[in-house]
Amino acid sequence: MRNVIQSDYVRSLVVGTLAVLGLLGVAGLAFPASVAGDLAGIVFSASTATSTARLAAPIVLAGLGGIFAEKSGVINIGLEGLLIISAFASVYVASLVGIGNALFGIPAIWVGFLAGVAASTALSGVFGIVCIEFKADQIIAGLAVWLIALGLAPFMSTVFFGGVNTPNLGANVGWEYLTAMVVLATLASWWTLNRTAFGKHLRAAGENPKALDTVGVSVSKVRHAGVLLSGVLSGVGGSALALSIGQFVGSGETMVQGKGFIAIVAYLFGNYNPIGTLGAGVLFAGLDAVQVRLQQLGYAVPDTLVQTIPYVVVIVVLALVGRTRIPEAAGEHYETEE
């Protein structure tokens, strides 16, 4: 933990964010009837905090999954597809069980949650086999995962529910549960990556797979584990997203709306650090929550403009700070030496 806190990069981000919030708070108090006053009222409101928690969950969780995959040497840009497929599967299975019912003593909403995680993990497993065993191009395979999920989930919704949007189940996972999931997953990911033998093997598979192979550890098994973990964590994120409103929305870009791609930006922005990814995810989700509230107050803030902020910010950070370093062997195939 000391390394994280003492990191100049993370410290700069934290200090910069706190400074901006402090200036906004002072400006809001000094000019309460101005735009700064409205903005400060929104940023420091309880409703913005709960909205941020809901919006940040899929971004942070998928971002953590992306770290595990890429640290192992596999670039998984299919996180968006994993979020979509788990969002639909969770709602579909919960509706099959029936809200208010239970399966083996487990409430329907949590049965659906587990089903979403299982669906995402299965799809990531297929992605891993294609990329690791058959040595397919990881970028093309990741795009395929996204496109398959983008078409399959609305199609299945139409088959089973008569439309691309499922009915609202009338139940939801509270923001308190989402916050707990995100915090626990972040701490567990940091601990796994930095304090366990598996974490060392994972980093070695992405940095120097030949050295890992030399000491008798299977590079392919480690990479499969990294990819499956990306599926598990993305599945948690997708299920949380759908079950937080009790519905899957499959129109347009689906209810996921690019959060999988923002998750990639979040872990790059966080320099492959789970805690940095948490901060970046909360920042991006907070901006999204603020723009929604500004629109409700009559300010014409295009949501598409806000959605570009994460990408612009990460480009600026990479250009000015340049601390994000991709694992040396990320995207490269490895042939085990017998």
Topology:
Blueprint: H1 2-6, H2 8-30, H3 35-43, H4 46-71, H5 79-97, E1 102-103, E2 106-107, H6 108-133, H7 138-161, H8 175-195, H9 197-207, H10 209-214, H11 219-243, H12 259-269, H13 274-296, H14 303-320
Helix pairs in contact: 2-3, 3-13, 4-8, 4-11, 4-12, 4-13, 5-6, 5-7, 5-11, 5-12, 6-7, 6-11, 8-9, 8-13, 9-11, 12-13, 12-14, 13-14
Which descriptors would you attach to this protein?
338 residues; globular; two-stranded antiparallel sheet; mainly alpha; single chain
Textual characterization of the structure:
- The chain is mainly α.
- Helices cover 73% and strands 1% of the residues.
- The protein is built from 14 helices and 2 strands; from the N terminus they run αααααββααααααααα.
- It has helices at 2-6, 8-30, 35-43, 46-71, 79-97, 108-133, 138-161, 175-195, 197-207, 209-214, 219-243, 259-269, 274-296, 303-320; strands spanning 102-103, 106-107.
- It has a two-stranded antiparallel sheet.
- The longest helix has 26 residues, at 46-71.
- It is globular and about 70 Å long.
